[in-house]
Design goal:
The protein has about 100 residues and is mostly helical. Helix content is about 90%, strand content about 0%. The protein has one domain (about 10-100). It has helices at about 1-35, 40-70, 75-85, 85-100. Keywords: Membrane, Transmembrane, Transmembrane helix.
């Protein structure tokens, strides 16, 4: 029982920070692209999207399965999953901005 009590806050906190850091790093790359006008940053941004998708996708699956294992905390875990999913339209919007800015 104590292992689950220790694991739950770490799992939820990790999900929160992953969501925030993913959005922040993407924003920093986009702002650097706008400020410096270096085309290489567009490729770095695309690489980052693939990398963040893989890492966040794996963690999203872990959270999904933890919803079933830790049914007492499923609402908190589902909320974190929702916030992680909000990064998808954000990254699409950033790609749209970068592509329109480049032309």
């Amino acid at each position: 029982m104590k292992l689950e009590e220790i694991k739950r806050p770490k799992l939820i906190e990790t999900g929160k920070w992953m969501s925030v850091f993913s959005a922040a790093i993407g924003t920093i790359i986009l702002l650097a692209f706008f400020a410096l006008k270096v085309d290489v940053l567009m490729f770095i941004g695309l690489f980052y999207i693939y990398f963040a998708t893989a890492i966040n996708g794996i963690f999203f699956l872990i959270l999904f399965f933890e919803c079933f294992r830790q049914q007492d905390h499923w609402r908190k875990i589902a909320a974190i999953m929702f916030f992680m999913l909000l990064n998808i339209p954000l990254s699409i919007f950033y790609c749209f901005l970068a592509l329109n800015f480049n032309h």
